[in-house]
Amino acid sequence: VADNIYESDVVVSPFVMGLLRPKIYLPLGLEGEGRKYIVLHEQSHIQRGDLWWKAIAQIALMLHWFNPLVYGACYLLGQDLEQACDEKVVACLGSTCKADYSRTLLAMSVANRHLLTPLAFGESGTKQRVKNILQ
Predict the structure, then answer these.
(1) Which of 75, 103, 121, 124 is surrounded by the most beta carbons within 10 Å?
(2) How far apart are CA 70 and CA 57, in angstroms?
């Protein structure tokens, strides 16, 4: 669609993939304000280097697969990365977009309940993310 943004009818939930040349993948037919919110969110993952942090976390899990504290730390890292990107989107667009952004987040999480994709827009922890956005 544009520079590093791709659309596909196979993609169920928006996500970012690639360490050296990250690309944003969107479901086909995503339009309007929701699309803008999602692209901003995914671009903030790229700008912040979140893919590298997730890769480091995966390496830590491979080396310490037996340690439940590492699993917990990786889970919390994922939650923090998502919350930071949510906050960046709200900061860029202003507080008037909070309700619409939350609705977009809920729509993506409902449509994607069973998909486990790293750095996906509708990833787990939706309830807490929406609470944080609306505060």
Answers:
(1) 121
(2) 8
